[in-house]
Amino acid sequence: MLRHVTAGVDGSVESLATAHWAAREAVRRGAPLRVVHAWQWHPRPPASVPLGNTEHEWAQQTLDQVVAGVRAAHPGLSVDAQLVSDSPVRGLLSWSDDTELFVLGSRGLGGLAGFMVGSVSQRVVARSVRPVVLVRAGRAAADEYPTTPGKEGSSQEDSKAPYRDVVLGLDVRRPCDELIEFAFEAARLHGTALRVIHAFRVPSADGADLHTVTGARADVLAAQERAVVATLRPWCAKFPEVSVTETVSEGRPAAALVHASSEACLVVVGRKIRESHLGTHIGSVAHAALHHIGGPVAVVPHG
C-alpha cells in the first residue's frame, strides 16, 4: 500500500505552514500528499465563517485555497484533497491506515499562547499510531538551512547547502527501534547529520567525600557514553551515509533537548503508548519539546 504524508489544515496561518512543510516532506519521501480539512455543522455558525457562506461552503473554499497554493509550489507532487464532516481529531485519525506521517500546526511557544492542553494537535499526538510532526506558523523552507555566516537572517538554500541537523532525544534505559529508525531515516532523507542527545540524572550523594563523588560521576558519565554508542552501533551500520554525533550530559533530558534544538531542521522525540485512568499521556520530554521548541518536532509512538 502506498502511504501518504497527511496534513491537517483549518485555514489558519499555522495550517498554511503545515501544508507546505508536509508538501516538502512528501517530495523527500517520494510519497503523495493528502490535505485534510475537517468541519462540523453548528446551529449558529462561528464568526470565522463569512456572511453569505454556509459552513460547508467556507470549509471547501478553505481547503481549495490551501491545496491550490501547495500545487502551485510543487507542480509535480500528487495532492489529494479531503473535506471531512467530522471532529478534527477523528477526521484526521480516520486516515491512519494509509498514512506514513501526520503533519499538524501548533501555535506559539509556551504558556497560554502555546500548545494548549486539549487542543486538536495534542490529542492527535496522544492518540496517533503514526508519527506526528508539529510545525509552527511562519516556518519556511529557508528555515531548514543554516544561516549564512556574516549575513544575519539569510540562508544557504539557493547554494544547496546541507540542511540543519536532525536532533534525536535518546533514553538508553528504554531505547526504541521505531524512534531511532525514524530519526536516522529523517537525516538520510534530508541529507544531513544526526545529533543524538542523551541526558541523565545522577542520584545525590549527600555527605560523601568530594573526590569520591566526582569519581563516581565520571564513572557514570563514561558508562552512559558507552551505552549510547552501543545503542546506536547497529543503526550506524544500517545507515552508513548518516554522520552521527553524540552528546551525553548530566541534567534534565527536556532541557538538554530544547537547548540543542536551536540549529535543528527537525527534533525527534518518542511517546510511549500507554493509557491511565486520567487518559492518554505523551510523556514529560515530548510535552516539553512541543511547548518550548520553535522548529518542527516529530513525536514517534512506540510500545
Descriptive key words:
alpha/beta, Rossmann fold, 10-stranded mixed β-sheet, 8 helices, 12 strands, 36% helix
How are the SSEs ordered, and which strands pair?
Layout: E1 4-8, H1 13-29, E2 33-39, H2 55-73, E3 79-85, H3 88-93, E4 99-106, H4 120-127, E5 132-136, E6 165-169, H5 177-190, E7 194-200, H6 210-238, E8 244-250, H7 253-260, E9 264-272, E10 275-276, E11 279-280, H8 284-292, E12 297-302
Parallel strand pairs: 1-2, 1-4, 2-3, 4-5, 6-7, 6-9, 7-8, 9-12
Antiparallel strand pairs: 5-12, 10-11
Helix pairs in contact: 1-2, 7-8
User: What's the Cα radius of gyration?
Assistant: 21 Å
DSSP, total strands: 12
* Low-confidence regions: 108-118, 148-159
| Bulk shape | elongated
> Which fold does the CATH topology of the largest domain refer to?
Rossmann fold
